[in-house]
Design a protein that fits this description.
168 residues, alpha+beta, Immunoglobulin-like, 5-stranded mixed beta sheet, 4-stranded mixed beta sheet, 2 helices, elongated
Length: 168
């Protein structure tokens, strides 16, 4: 009887230690999911009268690595490109019936958001308009003009970031 009791206690103790180790491991990973080590670009694309252009293509290019990030504007002419690595970027917007508009190089640093406003000019798609001036950098911006930043997106963001780091 004592042997079976000792065996049972040893098995129970081993199970408890295993569960505590698993909980401890998962507990150390949770704070890492909340860390943001990227930057973002948000903005709008409008026509000469200031009306939003739906379906415009926005491309941000990392000039140091050559990585290209794409977005399409919504009904309000707004776009968002999140989780960009810090570095120097150029951006351009194109829409059918308008000249391509290009932002010159600007630098994104850790946890910053650049807000770009593309005011398109009517013309041929092959023409390019270069925007002068630097992109304003906003610190810790949370509210965006785009309604794609909903609760579900906020809840899934840490998991997407963890997955992106795993894939790299």
């Amino acid at each position: 009887m004592r042997k079976s009791l000792a065996k049972s206690l040893a098995k129970s103790l081993a199970t408890t230690v295993g569960v505590l180790l698993l909980v401890g491991l998962v507990g150390t990973l949770v704070p890492a999911w909340g860390q943001e080590v990227t930057a973002a670009i948000v903005g709008t694309v409008t026509d000469p009268s200031g009306a939003p252009i739906k379906g415009a293509s926005v491309v941000a290019r990392d000039t140091e690595r050559g990585t290209v990030y794409k977005a399409t504007t919504n009904d309000a002419g707004a776009f968002s490109i999140f989780r960009l690595t810090v570095g120097t970027y150029t951006a351009e917007a194109t829409a059918q019936g308008f000249d391509k508009t290009v932002y010159p190089a600007f630098t994104l640093v850790l946890n910053q958001t650049a807000r770009l406003t593309f005011k398109m000019k009517v013309g041929k798609v092959s023409e390019t308009v270069e925007v002068t001036g630097a992109a304003p950098i906003l610190h810790g911006e949370l509210a965006l003009a785009d309604d794609t930043n909903n609760d579900l997106t906020q809840q899934a963001a840490p998991f997407a970031q963890c997955f992106a780091k795993f894939v790299r």
